[in-house]
């Protein structure tokens, strides 16, 4: 008999089950980090598999210690397992040594709760937050002995579903997936399970197609097999049309107006996770309007959690999980209303208990340094900020304006207070970027490093991470071309020549990885052949530099007769039909075009924080946005952006 702690913190006996390891010891002894595969964690929920109607496997396409650091699986795990008629179990991709052992021994990928093969579940769901995870999804399906192509799966295979930020352009994986969740999943997963349960209890009327027809009626659910894509001779999309009367012409993103209570009893790993701490999502979405930011659009608008709920959640996580660190998660933590007050209250409440609080995603202001200083149990190794661009011109292009004075004052405050490391994130290859912009960046890095000269103690180091900019679907830069490899290399060289200082360390993202990400993020359905071809050649965990091989992908593109540059490096006309044109984020195309034009003209726009509502489209869907727009109109502004701007 196993006693289990459920997510509402009451101890319940949920099932009679002997605790047993699923994979044989003979395998676990031989692989790296066997704790990835043994389950049985504190707060894991093990229900009676055979007595539950809807069984859902939640798959995260990365290794256990990465997946356990992601919030999407625990949120759905909590919601599903609260229902008496449903259960959710977790699965992560095995590292290649374990994958080989599974195949060599004729085994199958198992869940971490009841150690059931994926094939036993009714539904297998993938959380796809990044394009480079697509081959890993195929690897998991293959290890589960489930055919990758939706058309090859007979009725007795589980339904394969997916959701996550990269599913705002689901087309590259549309031929593998039966149904997608577009947008916030908290409400749609409940409706999904209701529909699945009724279909199953009702004798599976209409078979899989019958189920898909019912699912297509749920707001935010996309059934790709009900749509046909036609292409023009030049390779661009001619049309995306419904082939089934139940399918809506456009799939509207699901948006929850109020965040549901945070998860306070997630499973706690026995091994060290990448983020080894409790996490509370203090707000979703961002009030800023950075034009490069995909998350800024697909999680728009900002929705904050009440302070009291956060304070209570911190108490519960510490009690239920034993963590000594709580991370307050948000796209821009500094923008949480009353963040100083919240941090002050948490610090006071946990004084003397050795509980650390971490604040990711701080804005570049000296106030952020003061905020971090006010944290209890701080670790003074490094502070991280993301200016993204250095020259005032380019900052206006991307709509993230941080004055030199602000950045220098922030660095000065950090050094004065004894921080020994400062990490700065910048991007290379932003639209309209020139070598002059990069010279300005180099000058700024020298000025910042110069400030560290008078710092107390050991001289601080400056680490600068330069990622290649990848234009994303649904953002104002969705029409922009991505820089080619030669240009990026030239820009890197330009910076290296100008930043030859021992205390400043530059690092880059892999240019080929960025090209692949660019092609997949704005790609169409034909790319499924490329993804499959790359996986067949051995690609898996492509986000891991030590496992990534561009050659496999290049061969897969050649075999499919497709060119990654066609997807990534082309400036697209406004008239082009995008592969994701039937997926609606809620932000209108008119708003995105206006923002793109303003970017090219070097004009910044107001955000939802300091400026009146910009009428991005969400005012039609979100009460708070509508109220903000009403306020703007009553203050004398137009409800529409200026027509000349569109
Ligand atoms: S509708 Fe207005 S307030 Fe709401 S997200 Fe859009 S611009 Fe911001």
Automatic annotation (TrEMBL):
Gene3D superfamilies for this protein: tm_1862 like domain
Listed GO MF terms: catalytic activity; iron-sulfur cluster binding
Radical SAM core domain ranges (all copies): 272-505
Coiled-coil zones: none
InterPro entries linked: CHP03960_rSAM, Elp3/MiaA/NifB-like_rSAM, Radical_SAM_N2, rSAM, rSAM_horseshoe, rSAM_sf
CDD domains per UniProt: Radical_SAM
PANTHER family linked to this entry: RADICAL SAM DOMAIN PROTEIN, SLL1084 PROTEIN
Name of this protein: Radical SAM family uncharacterized protein
Species of the source: Dehalogenimonas alkenigignens
């Amino acid at each position: 008999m196993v006693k289990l702690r459920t997510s509402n913190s009451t101890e319940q006996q949920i099932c009679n089950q002997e605790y047993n390891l699923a994979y044989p010891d003979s395998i676990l002894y031989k692989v790296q980090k066997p704790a990835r595969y043994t389950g049985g964690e504190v707060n894991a929920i093990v229900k009676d598999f055979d007595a539950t109607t809807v069984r859902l496997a939640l798959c995260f396409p990365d290794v256990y210690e990465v997946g356990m650091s992601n919030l999407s699986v625990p949120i759905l795990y909590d919601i599903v397992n609260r229902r008496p008629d449903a259960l959710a179990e977790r699965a992560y991709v095995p590292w290649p040594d374990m994958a080989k052992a599974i195949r060599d021994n004729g085994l199958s990928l198992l869940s971490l709760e009841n150690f059931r093969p994926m094939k036993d579940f009714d539904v297998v769901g993938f959380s796809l937050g990044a394009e480079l995870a697509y081959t890993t999804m195929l690897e998991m399906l293959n290890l589960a002995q489930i055919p990758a192509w939706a058309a090859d799966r007979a009725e007795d295979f589980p339904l394969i579903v997916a959701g996550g930020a990269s599913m705002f352009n689901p087309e590259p994986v549309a031929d593998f997936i039966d149904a997608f969740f577009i947008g916030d999943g908290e409400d749609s997963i409940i409706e999904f399970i209701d529909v699945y349960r009724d279909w199953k209890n009702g004798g599976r009327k209409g078979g899989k197609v019958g189920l898909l027809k019912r699912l297509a009626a749920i707001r935010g659910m996309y059934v790709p097999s009900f749509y046909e894509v036609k292409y023009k001779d030049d390779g661009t999309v001619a049309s995306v049309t419904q082939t089934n009367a139940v399918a809506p012409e456009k799939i509207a993103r699901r948006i929850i107006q109020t965040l549901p209570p945070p998860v306070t009893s997630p499973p706690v790993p026995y091994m060290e996770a990448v983020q080894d701490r409790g996490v509370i999502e203090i707000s979703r979405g961002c009030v800023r309007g950075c034009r490069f930011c995909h998350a800024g659009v697909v999680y728009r608008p900002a929705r904050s959690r009440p302070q009291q709920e956060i304070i209570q959640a911190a108490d519960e996580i510490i009690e239920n999980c034993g963590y000594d660190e709580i991370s307050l998660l948000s796209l821009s933590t500094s923008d949480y209303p009353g963040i100083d007050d919240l941090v002050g209250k948490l610090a006071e409440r946990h004084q003397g208990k050795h509980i650390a609080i971490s604040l990711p995603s701080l804005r570049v202001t000296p106030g952020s340094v003061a905020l971090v200083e006010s944290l209890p149990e701080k670790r003074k190794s490094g502070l991280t900020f993301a200016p993204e661009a250095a020259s005032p011109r380019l900052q206006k292009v991307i709509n993230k304006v941080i004055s030199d004075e602000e950045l220098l004052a922030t660095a000065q405050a950090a050094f004065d207070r004894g921080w020994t490391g400062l990490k700065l994130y910048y991007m290379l290859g932003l639209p309209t970027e020139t070598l002059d912009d990069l010279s300005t960046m180099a000058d700024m890095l020298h000025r910042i490093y110069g400030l560290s000269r008078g710092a107390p103690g050991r001289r601080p180091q400056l680490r600068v991470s330069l990622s290649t900019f990848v234009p994303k679907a649904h953002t104002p830069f969705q029409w922009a071309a991505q820089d080619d490899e030669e240009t990026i290399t030239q820009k890197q060289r330009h910076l290296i020549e100008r930043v030859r200082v021992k205390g400043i360390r530059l690092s880059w993202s892999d240019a080929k990885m960025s090209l692949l990400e660019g092609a997949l993020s704005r790609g169409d359905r034909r790319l499924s052949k490329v993804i499959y071809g790359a996986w067949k050649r051995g690609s898996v965990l492509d986000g891991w530099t030590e496992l990534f091989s561009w050659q496999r992908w290049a061969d897969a593109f050649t075999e499919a007769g497709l060119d990654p540059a066609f997807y990534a490096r082309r400036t697209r006309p406004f008239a082009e039909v995008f592969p994701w044109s039937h997926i609606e984020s809620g932000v209108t195309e008119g708003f995105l075009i206006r923002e793109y034009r303003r970017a090219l003209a070097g004009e910044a726009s107001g955000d939802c924080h300091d400026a009146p509502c910009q009428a991005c489209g969400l005012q039609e869907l979100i009460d708070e946005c509508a109220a903000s727009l009403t306020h703007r109109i009553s203050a004398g502004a137009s409800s529409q952006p200026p027509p000349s701007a569109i």
